[in-house]
Amino acid sequence: MTRSSSAEPAEPKRKGTRSGSTLTPSQLARKGANDREAQRAIRARTKEHIERQTWLYEYVNKVLYEYA
């Protein structure tokens, strides 16, 4: 037997980050600093990942050409 969509309980909405409009100026400044630091960390991880993948790609190609 199939359920109708109205019989199913609604899933709770997922909360996102708080918008800046509800924050005090000091909270907003702290949020901005936090966001910048988080973005810096994301960029650093991405850069390291790309460097690792590039090294691995070059290493595999070198090994393949040496033994081919």
Structure description:
The chain has a domain at 26-67. Helices cover 63% and strands 0% of the residues. It has one helix and no strands. It has one helix at residues 25-67. Residues 1-39 are annotated as: Disordered. Residues 18-27 have a biased composition (Polar residues).
Spans of 5+ residues with little confidence (pLDDT < 50)? none
Distance between the termini: 61 Å
Tally of helical runs: 1
What proportion of the residues is helical, as a percent range?
Answer: 55-70%
Count all strands and give the number: 0
The geometry reads as elongated
Which class do the helix and strand fractions yield?
mainly alpha
How many strands, which pairing sense, and closed or not: the largest β-sheet? none
The rounded Rg comes to 24 Å
Mean pLDDT equals: 86
Q: Strand fraction band?
A: under 5%
Region (Disordered): 1-39
Biased composition (Polar residues): 18-27
Topology record:
Elements: H1 25-67
Biased composition (Polar residues): 18-27
Region (Disordered): 1-39
